[in-house]
Amino acid sequence: MDQNSAILGASVATVERTDLDGLFVVLREAGYELIGPTVRDSAIVYDHVESSEDFPIGWTDRQDAASYRITRRNDPACFGFVVGPHSWKRYLFPPKVRLWSARRTEDGFEIENDRRAPRLALIGVRACELAAIGIQDTVFLRREYREDDYADRRDNVFLVAVNCTEAGGTCFCVSMDAGPTARSGYDLALTEVLEDGRHYFVLRVGSDAGRSVQERLRSRPVTEAELASAARAEQRAAGQMGRRMDTAGLPELLGQVAEHPHWDDVAERCLSCANCTMVCPTCFCHTVEDVIDLTGQNAERVREWDSCFNGDYSYIHGGQIRPSIRGRYRQWLIHKLGTWHEQFETSGCVGCGRCITWCPVGIDITAEVRALRLQSGAAGGEKSP
C-alpha cells in the first residue's frame, strides 16, 4: 500500500457496487431521509430515493450554453453525469419557508414557530456543490447575523460526496479551485471506478459521523491499484473542463469596469429572467412576505427566493435602484466575482456552469469575463474555451 493510503488508514476503504445499498440501509437506520440524484422530466434532479436503483444508472448529460440533454451511457455508472437544474440549496435554503404563524386570541395573539429541520442524507454531492455549501455557511452562519432556519437544517444533514470522474460542457470548477475532487466538508466521499470489468467505489471518511457509518458498511481495505485508478479518474475530469475562467486580479478588474460599454452588449441579450440565480448554488437573495387570511384571524410570515434580476428587488422609496437590465446583470456579475470577496473573503462562484446551461439565451459568464478583460486591455493570457 502506498504512503497516502497508509496515512489515511481506515479512513479509506473499497465498497463493491453490489454493497452500495448497504449505505442506504445504515443511513435509514440512523434516521435519515435519503435524497439523491434521479431521472425525472428528462433531467437529472435531486429527490427522495429508496435505493441505488433510483439513481440515473447508465445515464449521462450533455451540456452547453442554453442546452441540456440526458442520454444513455455505454456502462452502468451510477454517477456518470455532472449537475442538473437542482442544487442542494433547495434543501438547506428552501425556495419557500414559513418562518412563523400567528393566531388571534381573546387576549391578543399567539405566535407559533413550527420550524422542524428534517434529518436528510444528501447523496451525490459534487465537489463544486460542497464548495457552494461552504460559501452559504459563511453567509448564514459565520457572520454577526445567524440564519436560524439554515443553521437548523445544516445541523441535520449527512453529506455523501461523489468525486467527478468526467466533466460537463459548461464546467469550470478547476478555475475556481472548487473541484472536481472533494477535499473537505463531507462526511463520506465516493469515487466511482469502472475498470477491467470491475465496478466499485473508493470511499473516504471526512468526519466522525462518517466514520460511524463506514464502520457499519460492508467494505475492505483499499489497495494501491484501486487508489491509483480512482486518482486517474478524478484527474481525467480535471482535464476535461468545458470552460475556464482567468480569476487573477478579477475583483480589481471588475472594480474598474462599472461603466464599460460591454454591459450594453450583455443587456441586449439578457432577458432578466432570473434563471441564473435560481439554479446557482450560492445565490441567496430572498424576500419576506406577511400573509393574512380572509378572516383576519390568522397570519404567517414566509421567506421566498428572490433575485437581483427582478426589478422590484431593488425598489426603495422613490423607485428602483437598478431599473435597467444592464444594471442588474452588472450588479450580479460584479458582486458574484468581485465584491463577494470583500463581504465573505471568497468568490461567489464555484464553476458548476449551471448559469451557462440554463440561461435561455446562452449567456456565458466565462465569456463575459473574457470579453471584459480583452476590451479593457487586461487579457491575462486567457484562451477561448
What does this structure look like?
This protein has a domain at 3-94 and 115-238. Strand 10 and strand 11 (198-205) form a beta hairpin. It has 385 residues and is an alpha+beta fold. The protein has helices at residues 3-8, 21-29, 89-92, 127-140, 148-155, 208-214, 224-238, 250-254, 262-269, 275-279, 325-344, 354-357, 365-375, and strands spanning 12-16, 33-40, 43-48, 59-64, 67-72, 96-105, 108-112, 120-125, 157-162, 188-195, 198-205, 220-221, 286-292, 298-305, 315-316, 319-320. Helix content is 30%, strand content 25%. The model is unreliable at 1-10 and 379-385 (pLDDT under 50). It starts with a helix and ends in a 10-residue tail after the last helix. It is built from 13 helices and 16 strands.
SS element count, helices: 13
Counting helices, strands and paired strands, the structural category is alpha+beta
Largest sheet: 8 strands, mixed
Distance from N terminus to C terminus (CA atoms, Å) equals 39 Å
* Radius of gyration, taken over Cα atoms and rounded to an integer in Å: 22 Å
Shape: globular
Strand residue content: 15-25%
- Unreliable spans are 1-10, 379-385
Compute the number of strand runs. 16
> Within the largest sheet, what's the order of strands?
3-2-8-9-10-11-1-12
